[in-house]
């Protein structure tokens, strides 16, 4: 695998070049004449911009275009050997993928790993796993994207006071990985990259306003407005897991009590499942506990699917609480779709039914009249696809202009 050094990574110079690359990424090979029409560029200016991209080996010829009468135009496409690294670091796992320039996954690996082992250990394992997936493909890596399960300063490329990531506060993740991988790296909150993945390649394809709710070990929300992730001033927009529902509720990892996450995150479900098993209120979970020695949110899903009343009640109560929070978001933001993903979303249609019921009951009819509330189509791939998309945004942005999408 050839990894191009960061210092040699081609940098896009103009807004028109950036638009050309983004259009080819989003729609695939296009004829030169169509590119000129879409971007409203004179033929001479278009030829100049495309020539630069050819010179930097970012695009290549795709052969003759379909005839529109007269002389046939030439197709332009993104270079076949462009590659992007994408990593989705969760609370209990690391996922790594290599994609092409259109964010199609070429190689992918997922491994259980505890985020609490700290940044040095986790990033070292990440680079080892990236070496494995890079060994399965050929090409030039010109960018990378990473999602982290906590608040992230997108500008600085580092987590800031993340509740479930001890030792990670202000650790220079972007700079450390850029040095290891030899290419520019973007770092964002994991829910934001999942929202991007679902918007560009999943069930929310091409929607400009959507909400992506991740229910895993923690709970977060990615907000897409006008086709772009909305991060807020400090990058903490969408941190719904720490909305307080009860001043006297269970303790949360953030140090407060009564947060949504403390009621319905993966850790909370495992805690409540253990209580049900030990108290004898769920024979199904008690049997699982005796067999495995521990319980997880996935075990709650299995018990509920098997008709266990106590487990199904956990799902109903958790879905109802989540639905109340989502209903407020729907009333405030008026999105075109709500997508629910993350590990706990494996609770499936029981969870979906409770969330839908709460949202449709508590939000304005005008906001919910045509509002789909659906499960993620991409599953565990949403994070790596979104991280790759973030990396392409950065790689295809004109120097000094920031991301294009």
Question: Could you describe the 3D structure shown?
Answer:
With 405 residues, the protein is α/β, with parallel strands linked by helices. The protein has helices spanning 15-27, 32-39, 43-55, 119-134, 173-181, 190-201, 260-264, 266-279, 283-292, 297-305, 309-333, 349-362, 365-368, 381-395; strands at 2-3, 30-31, 59-64, 74-78, 82-89, 93-99, 105-112, 140-148, 152-153, 158-159, 185-189, 210-215, 219-225, 228-229, 338-341, 373-375. The strands form 4 sheets. Strands 1, 5, 6, 7, 8 and 11 form a 6-stranded mixed beta sheet that branches. It has a 5-stranded mixed beta sheet with strand order 14-13-12-15-16, with helices on both faces.
What attributes characterize this protein structure?
405 residues, disordered N terminus, alpha/beta, five-stranded mixed sheet
């Amino acid at each position: 695998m050839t990894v191009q050094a960061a210092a040699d990574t081609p940098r896009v110079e103009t807004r028109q070049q950036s638009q050309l690359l983004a259009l080819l990424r989003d729609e695939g090979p296009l004829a030169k004449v169509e590119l000129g029409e879409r971007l409203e560029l004179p033929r001479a200016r278009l030829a100049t911009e495309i020539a630069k991209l050819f010179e930097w080996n970012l695009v290549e010829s795709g052969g003759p275009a379909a005839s529109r009468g007269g002389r046939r135009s030439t197709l332009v496409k993104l270079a076949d050997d462009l590659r992007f690294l994408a990593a989705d670091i969760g609370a209990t796992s690391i996922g790594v993928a290599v994609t092409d320039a259109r964010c199609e996954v070429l190689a992918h690996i997922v491994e259980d790993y505890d985020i609490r082992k700290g940044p040095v250990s986790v990033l070292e394992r990440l680079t080892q796993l990236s070496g494995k997936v890079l060994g399965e493909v050929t090409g030039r890596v010109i960018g990378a994207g990473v999602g982290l399960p906590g608040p992230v300063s997108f500008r600085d490329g580092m987590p800031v006071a993340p509740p479930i990531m001890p030792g990670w506060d202000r650790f220079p993740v972007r700079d450390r990985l850029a040095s290891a991988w030899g290419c520019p790296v973007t770092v964002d909150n994991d829910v934001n990259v999942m929202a991007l993945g679902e918007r560009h390649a999943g069930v929310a394809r091409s929607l400009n306003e959507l909400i992506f709710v991740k229910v895993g070990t923690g709970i977060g929300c990615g907000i897409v407005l006008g086709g772009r992730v909305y991060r807020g001033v400090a990058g903490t927009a969408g941190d719904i897991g720490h909305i307080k529902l009860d001043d006297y509720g269970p303790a949360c990892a953030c140090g407060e009590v009564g947060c949504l996450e403390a009621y319905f995150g993966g850790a909370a479900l495992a805690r409540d499942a253990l209580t049900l098993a030990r108290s004898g209120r769920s024979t199904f979970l008690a049997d699982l506990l005796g067999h495995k020695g521990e319980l997880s949110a996935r075990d709650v899903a299995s018990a509920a699917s098997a008709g266990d009343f106590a487990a199904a009640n956990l799902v109903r109560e958790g879905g109802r609480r989540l639905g109340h929070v989502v209903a407020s978001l729907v009333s405030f933001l008026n999105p075109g779709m709500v997508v629910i993903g993350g590990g706990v979303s494996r609770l499936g249609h029981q969870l979906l039914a409770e969330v839908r019921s709460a949202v449709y009951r508590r939000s304005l009819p005008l906001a919910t009249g045509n509002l789909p509330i659906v499960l993620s189509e991409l599953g565990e791939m949403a994070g790596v696809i979104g991280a790759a998309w973030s990396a392409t945004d950065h790689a295809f942005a004109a120097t000094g202009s920031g991301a294009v999408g």
